[in-house]
Amino acid sequence: MFKSSDIHTVTEFSRKPAEHIKRLSESKRPEILTVNGKAAVVIQDAETYEKMASMADYAESIQNIRQAMSEQGRPLDEFTAEFEAKHGISR
After folding, report:
1. What is the DSSP secondary structure assignment for residue 37, as one 8-state letter?
2. Quick check: 47 and 40 in contact, CB under 8 A?
3. CA–CA separation, 56 vs 34, rounded Å?
4. Nearby residues of 24 by Cβ (< 8 Å), 6 or more positions away
5. 69 and 85 assigned to the same domain
6. Which residues, in sequence order, are bridge partners of residue 42?
7. Structural domain of residue 29, as residue ranges?
8. Phi, psi at residue 19, to the nearest 5°?
9. pLDDT tens per residue across all 91 residues of the chain
10. What separation, in Å, do the N-terminal and C-terminal C-alpha atoms of the chain show?
11. Do 38 and 52 lie in a common domain?
């Protein structure tokens, strides 16, 4: 996911923030900022973040729907048999 060109120091970022912001906006790739050689934060442009957050919300809603359906659902054969019996349908 990350390339070595996506890793920068916080000091480097603080010296040339406009350069980083331009690169983030153009590439749409996140950057890792390091402190003392260790990853400290990940930054990305706002548009890409909003898309990612929207996709995460969508995935969570699908997960919630699946969970609700597994708790309330029943096998199709069971439903069909009950429906046919209730409505006098025979095969």
Report:
1. T
2. no
3. 26
4. 30, 31, 43, 44, 45
5. yes
6. 32
7. 1-44
8. -65, -45
9. 678 889 999 999 999 999 999 999 999 999 999 999 999 999 999 999 999 999 999 999 999 888 887 777 778 888 889 988 988 887 7
10. 56
11. no
